[in-house]
Amino acid sequence: MGRHTIDFPAWLDDRVQHIETVLDQFLPPVTAVPPTLHEAMRYAVLGGGKRIRAALVYAAGEASLQSGTAASAQEIALDHAAAAVELIHAYSLVHDDLPCMDDDELRRGRPTAHVKFGVANAMLAGDALQPLAFELLGLMPIAPALIVQATQLLARSAGSLGMVGGQAIDCASVGLALSGEELKLMHSMKTGAMLEASVLLGGIVAGAGSAVRQGLEAYAAAIGLAFQVVDDILDVTADTATLGKTAGKDAAENKPTYVSIMGMDGSRDLLQSLHAQAHAALLPLGPSAAHLASIADYIVGRDR
Amino acid sequence: MGRHTIDFPAWLDDRVQHIETVLDQFLPPVTAVPPTLHEAMRYAVLGGGKRIRAALVYAAGEASLQSGTAASAQEIALDHAAAAVELIHAYSLVHDDLPCMDDDELRRGRPTAHVKFGVANAMLAGDALQPLAFELLGLMPIAPALIVQATQLLARSAGSLGMVGGQAIDCASVGLALSGEELKLMHSMKTGAMLEASVLLGGIVAGAGSAVRQGLEAYAAAIGLAFQVVDDILDVTADTATLGKTAGKDAAENKPTYVSIMGMDGSRDLLQSLHAQAHAALLPLGPSAAHLASIADYIVGRDR
């Protein structure tokens, strides 16, 4: 797993390629009945994406494992957990892109799933990715009690008090003036919940004790929010080709964003503060948290 | 739990009322943010439905419990499992009714969720009901290893090789001539998988041994299929007011059904044979399976 690699870009590349292989293996083949549904599921999940959630699972796993332990079961379990969060993320994008939601035609530089497979197949593909995520957690070769903890966390983070709740607030707020607090709540649910779950899942699966879990939680809260602030900044500053999705869409739809509420300078100040919080939270975890620290830098500095 | 009640209608009434209370408690309140999403989730789940899946969980639990054991933990666990299958069923109906799928405006005699709350909220409500089902399984007060078994079963039964896969085949087959075998596969996935899961979940939660599980599996396979044959017959013979949903819809849309493929007589013969298979499978389980037997009779004899 390259736990002591200092070359972060190489480590991230390795993890991105690895999770692609893992997802390819875990998704049913296109030959399985019904083939079009499985093709749509694979299209939605494979072939792109930053894989930040998977990287967070792996990096949090590294930060939590006791050094020197034979970690093969945990490594397999981390693959399952990383795949599970990527499946939930992929399903949420498919549904978010549908005509009844954001009505997006471009995702990761390709036609969205419903453009390629039709709305019904896209919706059903999303519906089927969700239980597959829970199935993968159930197949982890670790103590059943830890599996149950992981399942609970994923379920809460993906549900009406987490990711889906945030999407519902987002939908309902188009054209409305949200306060900074309301905006923060929306994003902490819509994007933050699953980013945080990714970090904590890595910790649970690798057997993190309560001190490490506490550090992971503080780190996760900071990067969860930072991620969305960057997204809002990029929606203004980047172009569609770089983003791989339609730029300027939030402003065009009069959606509240950090930039629209706090201004560009205010948003960048907030981002710096969150970045510092993330690093501070990792200090007690020592050098095994190096990749988590690098992911925080990566999230803050990304241009797409 | 009335394990020795012989009055089946009274037992079923009791279970239907009980699961309504249980679901009401398990669903987030409408005061939780976002309120409209939670209102839509509660609308989709509460206030109607035959609750056959919940009844199957309870009846299979009764058939699997050792008589005389203090069963309070199992009773709580059965509530969670029964609620979980009803949540999955409710979400599937909400998504199935959407304009991109069956485009139904009536369900259980009321406007469908998207008619009442809009398409986006209805889709998101379905999306959020699914993880809630897995969360409830994770909260069962039984051995974690049994929770993991239950989670795996629910995930597989609700996924692309189960319920959602069946819906995808159903969508893709409108206007096509399916063979009897193809139709059977579609229904065994679309409806059968979750009915079977309900029976087996009751067994897992109540600690059924392998002999009992074998009987439950054979029973479940028979009633899963029987349920759909009855549905197809009712689509032809019943009226909209009795059904609480639009009658004659399958024929109008040229959807393949048992009646369209085997004819009404052939369908009724098949139904009788499945009914007999269900009863035969329960014989080794003895008198504690009485309610499972009555549910088989109920499924075959229902008029809505």
Could you write a compact summary of the structure shown?
Chains A, B: One of its GO terms (biological process) is terpenoid biosynthetic process. The structure is a homodimer of 304-residue chains. Chain A has 304 residues and is mainly alpha-helical.
3D architecture notes:
Chain A is mostly helical and 304 residues long. Chain A has a single domain, classed as Farnesyl Diphosphate Synthase. Chain A is built from 14 helices and 2 strands, in the order H-H-H-H-E-E-H-H-H-H-H-H-H-H-H-H. Chain A has helices spanning 8-26, 35-45, 52-64, 72-97, 113-117, 119-138, 144-158, 163-172, 180-205, 210-237, 240-243, 249-252, 258-282, 290-301, and strands at residues 106-107, 110-111. In chain A, strands 1-2 form a two-stranded antiparallel ribbon. In chain A, a hairpin with a 2-residue loop joins strand 1 and strand 2 (110-111). The relative contact order of chain A is 0.13. Chains A and B meet through helix 2, helix 6, helix 7 and helix 8 of A and helix 2, helix 6, helix 7 and helix 8 of B.
Please give the structural blueprint:
Two copies of one chain form a homodimer.
Chain A: H1 8-26, H2 35-45, H3 52-64, H4 72-97, E1 106-107, E2 110-111, H5 113-117, H6 119-138, H7 144-158, H8 163-172, H9 180-205, H10 210-237, H11 240-243, H12 249-252, H13 258-282, H14 290-301
Antiparallel strand pairs in A: 1-2
Helix pairs in contact in A: 1-4, 2-6, 3-4, 3-9, 3-14, 4-6, 4-9, 7-9, 8-9, 9-10, 10-13, 10-14, 13-14
